[in-house]
Amino acid sequence: xxxxxxxxxxxxxxxxxxxxxxxxxxxxxxxxxxxxxxxxxxxxxxxxxxxxxxxxxxxxxxxxxxxxxxxxxxxxxxxxxxxxxxxxxxxxxxxxxxxxxxxxxxxxxxxxxxxxxxxxxxxxxxxxxxxxxxxxxxxxxxxxxxxxxxxxxxxxxxxxxxxxxxxxxxxxxxxxxxxxxxxxxxxxxxxxxxxxxxxxxxxxxxxxxxxxxxxxxxxxxxxxxxxxxxxxxxxxxxxxxxxxxxxxxxxxxxxxxxxxxxxxxxxxxxxxxxxxxxxxxxxxxxxxxxxxxxxxxxxxxxxxxxxxxxxxxxxxxxxxxxxxxxx
Length: 327
Ligand SMILES: Cc1cc2nc3c(=O)[nH]c(=O)nc-3n(C[C@H](O)[C@H](O)[C@H](O)COP(=O)(O)O)c2cc1C
Prior knowledge:
The chain has eleven helices and 13 strands. With 327 residues, the protein is α/β, with parallel strands linked by helices.
């Protein structure tokens, strides 16, 4: 057993590095390459309900508030066109050829399809399921509680129909994130993925048109996820997967110290290639050896809010004295 081995959602992993759901994991050879590069587990590209070929326009009319911002990006702009059957085949095939856990990812609009697809994903043999839920709170008549209730309702509706562990992947924009996280955990989520990074639209001032935003994160984007992992680990019951801005071994170590069970990698793999996985494994292993840690358990959550000797720092939102000497 390697010093990096760990457990996530009850799955045994050889290391805590997951390839996040993205286009690198949308095809069999991509998934195989991620496994060969050393990933501890792989999250497949999300299956978006919109990929199914039926009356989307009619749905748009009724369900616009539930529309997923990423879906618009990935399905419309990147021309995604692989449907549910192909997705189920991807799960079946990769389960045969890849030895690390394969986690499917699903985003739906209507309850019927959440359940139908979740069941099919279980039957296809996925080791776990990530529910990629994002509801754009753009309706001025809808309260925050109403929106949070939808997240919990989706979990409640799916839960009785699946026998594999599931994670809920959310964005950071909630007025009471800790409360929602606690509700999702109590309703049965085996993990929360904090956070999804949504498509940011842009405007082309030359052509006066809408333009696609830049999709990749930088290491500076990790702060939000780091703070919330530290605040929530130790106070809610489920595992936490850190996502957004983790680009190197240092980022992974910080997230593990904050209390993340695993780290999900995406932008860094696009920017540096899949060999970045091996590089990060080496960096984390070397750091552990230098510090004398034999296992992740020995330092996991050591700097979470509940373990820290300065717990107030994670709740500080104003700079006050933090920038003394700079201001
Ligand atoms: C090209 C691309 C495609 C993505 N597709 C999905 C997706 O299908 N489902 C999902 O949950 N997240 C998707 N994401 C979000 C990533 O999984 C990840 O949460 C986000 O990029 C933040 O991590 P990073 O900072 O390491 O990039 C995508 C990201 C990128 C850049």
